[in-house]
Amino acid sequence: MTTEHVEDLNKLMIQRRQKIEEMQKMNIKPYGKKYKTSHHTADIVENFADLEGEQVSLMGRIMALRTHGKASFADLMDMKGRIQLYVKVDMVGEEKYNFFNTLDIGDIIGVSGIVFKTRSGQISIRVEDFRFMSKSLRPLPEKWHGLKDKETRYRQRYVDLIVNPEVKNTFELRSKIIREIRRFLEDRGFLEVETPMMHPIPGGTSARPFITHHNTLDMDLYMRIAPELYLKRLIVGGFEKVFELNRNFRNEGMSYKHNPEFTMMEVYQANADYYDMMELMEEMVAHVAENTLGSTKINYQGKDIDLTPPWRRLTMVEAVKEYTGIDFNQIESDREAVEAARSIGLEVPSNTSKGRVLNNIFEEKVEGNLIQPTFIMNYPIEISPLAAKMEEDPMFTYRFEAFINGWEMCNAFTELIDPIDQKERFEEQVRQRAAGDEEAHMMDEDFVRALEYGIPPTVGLGVGIDRLVMILTDSPSIRDVILFPTMRPEQ
Q1: Number of helical (H) and strand (E) elements in the chain, helices listed first
Q2: For the chain, is the Cβ count within 10 Å smaller at the N or the C terminus?
């Protein structure tokens, strides 16, 4: 913002404060109380045939003002849209009319009047009376929408919502998406639950946590990175179908598809496996798209994407072979795997295990190609400490991730329910943590104890809600679908 612009802004703000003083001299309160309304703007426009000639009352923000001698026009905006106001001196009186013409863009008023259509065919309200509700002391920006204003728009979302109607539409659609997710799961017998946000031991995934301190207990706590281990405790306790839709916190990098605070949904079902969760995932996304957008065929940033089930299914080994030509079924040792990675230009440490090399190749060379919805199945055991081993090949687990637009959209697996195996995997994670891996799991003795009481065969699914909303709203950045994304402090 230039010095000249700041000076102009300061002048306008001073002028608006002076208007408050003038209003008080006229016994007009600059900040009013509740105004009784009968309609929103969109209700009037959509039902004009029934409301023509009828009196209505509504409240909104002045977004445009055009004076013409004894008559003036204004655009009034509320939550649902805009409508034109027609104000005549002989309808409201000279004193009120003159005051109306001193209003500023951004001021909030309540109006009552008659619904009619102008000669040009514009649906309007002939104002009979109005009441001042709230003075806007800061002028709204004239040129707000656009890349150069992105940072300011995210910081001042309240202004973004005022001046960019499409932003409000995105967040209304986000709310509908979440409502349809809940409806889909509840209709299938899942119970929504809440589990702790602060954990004594961070677990459920590999990620760096935020750390806080509880003064009374004099102990460190961790903002949750995942609710998984608590939800599986509920399955131990006898619940058969549960889900939680809430926030997770990960002290990691930020990008157009990563925010430190994000919305995750996790689903757990007893007596089911990862095939059941594949069906649930693809059916849920299709249901949500159909009920919010009217179709399972969408366009994201110029790419046509078909969300119609069934989605394509590939094992990780098959996907790597398809996109790189490397067949891990023919690779027998860690050394061969490392050499294979290096042959396609991927540098990995010499001591990397075969399973980790496979995953590295997949992430670097395959993920970005998975534009259409695709399930990638059977992840290596080294990167799946909570998933059940495959009976067919214990190097792999019954785990899948779904990809759309080259992004991971969900993670799921048939759960490891053997407490002895689980403890051994935790111990291996502890060794990796001691060796410097800050994202490796800590030992969770209580979770192992819960498994020792016995847990039925169970499957779990975690879905990144923000990324799903990005896809369904055609939003290029995760900040476009989070009302108040994490930002650096203003300089």
Answers
A1: 16, 18
A2: C
Q: 267: closest CA among 151, 359, 181, 376?
A: 181
- Side chain identity at residue 33, one-letter code: K
Q: Strands 191-192 and 211-214, how do they pair?
A: unpaired
Structure token digits, residue 311 = 């989605």
Strands 241-249 and 191-192: parallel
CATH number at residue 44: 2.40.50.140
- Using the structure block, give the residue that is written with the tokens 């008659």: 114
DSSP for 456-480 reads: -SEEEEEEEHHHHHHHHHT-SSGGG
Which one of 134, 151, 186 terminates a domain? 134
Residue 115 lies in a domain: yes
Q: Is the pTM of this model over 0.85?
A: yes
Give the integer Cα–Cα distance in Å for 266 and 233: 13
Q: What is the C-alpha separation between 42 and 468, in angstroms, rounded?
A: 29
- The answer to the question of residue 363 being in a domain is no
Q: Any idea what the CATH number is for the domain that residue 396 is in?
A: 3.30.930.10
Same domain? For 59 and 184 the reply is no
Asked whether residue 243 falls in the same domain as residue 303, the answer is yes
State both tokens at 72. Answer: 């003036």
Domains identified in the chain, total number: 2
Structural domain includes residue 344: no
Q: Which domain holds residue 304?
A: 163-311+372-480
Please check whether residues 216 and 120 belong to one and the same domain: no
The Cα–Cα gap between 242 and 125 comes to 50
SS3 labels along 328-365: HHHCCCHHHHHHHHHHCCCCCCCCCCHHHHHHHHHHHH
Whether 157 is in a domain gets the answer no
- Calculate the dihedral angle through the C-alpha atoms of 439, 471, 152, 59, rounding to the nearest 10 degrees: -130
214-243 burial string, b = 16+ CB within 10 Å, else e? eeeeeeebbbbbbbbbbbbbbbbeebbbbb
Residue 174 and residue 37 share a domain: no
Q: Are strands 123-134 and 71-78 parallel, antiparallel or unpaired?
A: unpaired
Buried/exposed 260-272: b ≥16 CB within 10 Å, e otherwise: bebbbbbbbbbeb
473 and 420 share a domain?
yes
Each residue of 176-215: pLDDT tens digit?
999 999 999 999 999 999 999 999 998 888 889 999 999 9
Same structural domain for residues 102 and 215? no
What is the per-residue pLDDT across 387-438, written as a single tens digit (0 to 9) for each?
999 999 999 999 999 999 999 999 999 999 999 999 998 898 889 888 888 7
Which of 400, 396, 398, 442 has the alpha carbon at shortest distance from 417?
Answer: 398
Taking residue 306's Cβ as centre, other Cβ atoms within 10 Å add up to 13
Same domain (yes/no): 93, 185: no
